[in-house]
Amino acid sequence: MAMRLRTEMPELAGVTEWVNSETGKEALNGKPVLVHFWSISCYLCKESFPELKKMREETPELEFVGIHMPRSEKDTNINEVKATIEQYGLQHPQAIDNEHKVVDAFENEFVPAFYLFDSTGVLRHRSAGEKALSLLKKPLERVLNEEKEKQS
């Protein structure tokens, strides 16, 4: 069962290893956050990385957190995950979740999957699969516009 909309962001606890920097729910408070689940064996995930990277550059007010979710024993090779992170230039915090602790906390079953939280830490949108990034655009605009209105 997928995490319900308007649910509070779960803790990012139990991660096997962090790459780039470690982050947690407390550090993300007060900022809109996009959590994306991916796997090294997922071609759709790799295809989405350039667009995700562009989105990160175009929306500096949005925090990004990647969660590597292994789909098989082969996907648990930490060195391969790190090499993929470097190859695709994923510079935001990346959690390697080999024991599926974060995956379970988010009740996530799919890659790629995207969870958008507003600055209060409430889930506003989730999408998965081939069209997940395109489905994210309007909810992202809405959340960012709400944030701008709060600040004015």
UniProtKB/TrEMBL annotation:
Entry-linked InterPro entries: AhpC/TSA, Thioredoxin-like_sf, Thioredoxin_domain, Thioredoxin_ResA/DsbE_sf
Gene3D superfamilies: Glutaredoxin (3.40.30.10)
Domain (Thioredoxin) ranges: 3-145
MF annotations from Gene Ontology: antioxidant activity; isomerase activity; oxidoreductase activity
Keyword Oxidoreductase among record annotations: no
Keyword Isomerase in record: yes
Keywords: Disulfide bond, Isomerase
Name this polypeptide is given: Thiol-disulfide isomerase/thioredoxin
Native source species: Baia soyae
